[in-house]
Amino acid sequence: MTRTQERFARDWAALAGIGRDEASGGYRRYAWTGADLQLRAWFADQARQRGMTCEQDRNGNLWAWWGDRGPGAVVTGSHLDSVPDGGAYDGPLGVLSGFLAIDELRERGAWPARPVAVACFADEEGARFGVACVGSRLLTGVLDPDAARGLRDGDGVTLAEAMRAAGANPAAMSADEPALDRIGAFVELHIEQGRALDAPVGIATGIWPHGRWRLRLRGEANHAGTTWLADRRDPMLPYATTVLAAREAAGRAGALATFGKIAVVPNGTNAVPSAVDGWLDVRAPDEATLTAVVAEITAAASASAAAHQVDVEVSGESYTPGVSFDHALSDRVAAAAGGLPALPTGAGHDAGILSARVPTAMLFVRNPTGVSHSPAEFAEAADCVTGIQALGAVLEELACR
Ligand code: GLV
Ligand code: MN
Ligand code: MN
After folding, report:
1. What is the Å distance from ligand 1's center to 193 Cα?
2. For residue 51, what are the CA distances in angstroms to 37, 64, 349?
3. Contact 345, 364 (CB under 8 A)
4. Cα three-residue angle 314-320-321, rounded to 5 degrees
5. Among the bound ligands, the one closest to the CA of 90
């Protein structure tokens, strides 16, 4: 085993138990929960072990600095939070790879001419409060801090309350121009989340535009055994119609549409529901297609709701425009890594948010099954190590020359 293989095996195992649900085998690493605090402590410890200075910025993002914090910094990293029952690699692989790539550089005596940082962005998945990439959106000023503070989780707890309970200060959240000004380049390493990469490591060309919408359907609760079908105002019916319409609209347009989360009130087997909320995720190769698909789904929801005397409201919860990563930086990254296959992705990343403000590129590590956002997500250790080595070569090229 090489030193990097050993270190990867050791540090990966140390992360494995945090926030893992024994029954599903998946991760429940939600923003500002106990699991998140353990992950933040793990990050601070990784920095401490390497003599790196660790800081939490005003938006809850973590930064570990190799050398003094300063302008022209080469930053790598990703996120540590997860979707419900998420896999081990989505996010953490990029954070740990940053630390292990720095170990590689130090081992071969490479010394940075510019500051280098490993970053961990807060609440990338938005699993708890609904909006994805909260930390990087706040940092770059595309999420209003008041709106962020008021976001509520499924139990009605606001983000501000959750941060305070975790010892953070929500009042400080705001766009962070000094932090952005320090970044000369950002390179995020991430597991690939489909089956599009047939080599150990690849480079991302861009990210499809995508967003989240909430469908609120309001009808009337009633008895399942005594309410004639004609007398019902059942919101489950327009919900079902809308799910099918989403599938059809996306299929016709070459887009993707998913209803992965639903809340039913009162959620009783023998009651016609009074309310159904469904969360819709739509992604498309371009923004015109995305807009058209969402409009078609919204129209289907309205028509079906009217037919069943149900009230409907569709509201946007988060939106990310399409991203093309920085060509010059991506060419340099690919060359430093010895030449890489290039591919786009439909998955969202903090790199996509940062790319609006700083030169950004992404490395992908092969996903042999293509499964992600699932406990079954997997990458071969050998591919992860190849990714770490590629990231090491990239950091050396960008920071040490
Ligand atoms: C994040 O992983 C997303 O693509 O939603
Ligand atoms: Mn994810
Ligand atoms: Mn991710």
Report:
1. 9
2. 21, 9, 28
3. yes
4. 110
5. 3
Structure tokens given for 291: 């807009």
Ligand 1, atom nearest to 346 Cα: 4
d(CA 363, CA 388): 10
Query: What value, to the nearest 5°, has the Cα angle with vertex 256 and ends 252 and 259?
Result: 115
- What Å distances lie between residue 174 and 135, 166, 171, 179, 389, CA to CA? 10, 18, 8, 11, 35
Q: Which is it for strands 116-121 and 73-79: parallel, antiparallel or unpaired?
A: parallel
C-alpha 94/C-alpha 190 separation (Å) is 5
Which residue has its alpha carbon closest to ligand 1 atom 3? 348
Six-digit token pair at 76? 């790598």
Amino acid (one-letter) located at 188: E
Which residues sit with their C-beta closer than 6 Å to ligand 1?
A: 125, 132, 347-348
Q: Which ligand is nearest to the CA of 91?
A: 3
Q: Going residue by residue through the chain (401 aa), what tens digit of pLDDT does each one get?
A: 899 999 999 999 999 999 999 999 999 999 999 999 999 999 999 999 999 999 999 999 999 999 999 999 999 999 999 999 999 999 999 999 999 999 999 999 999 999 999 999 999 999 999 999 999 999 999 999 999 999 999 999 999 999 999 999 999 999 999 999 999 999 999 999 999 999 999 999 999 999 999 999 999 999 999 999 999 999 999 999 999 999 999 999 999 999 999 999 999 999 999 999 999 999 999 999 999 999 999 999 999 999 999 999 999 999 999 999 999 999 999 999 999 999 999 999 999 999 999 999 999 999 999 999 999 999 999 999 999 999 999 999 999 98
As beta bridge partners, residue 118 has 64, 76
Using only C-alpha atoms, the chain has a radius of gyration, in whole angstroms, of 22
Instruction: Using CB atoms within 10 Å of the CB of residue 180, give its burial: 0 to 12 exposed, 13 to 18 middle, 19+ buried.
Output: middle
Instruction: Report CA 27 to chain centroid distance, whole Å.
Output: 14
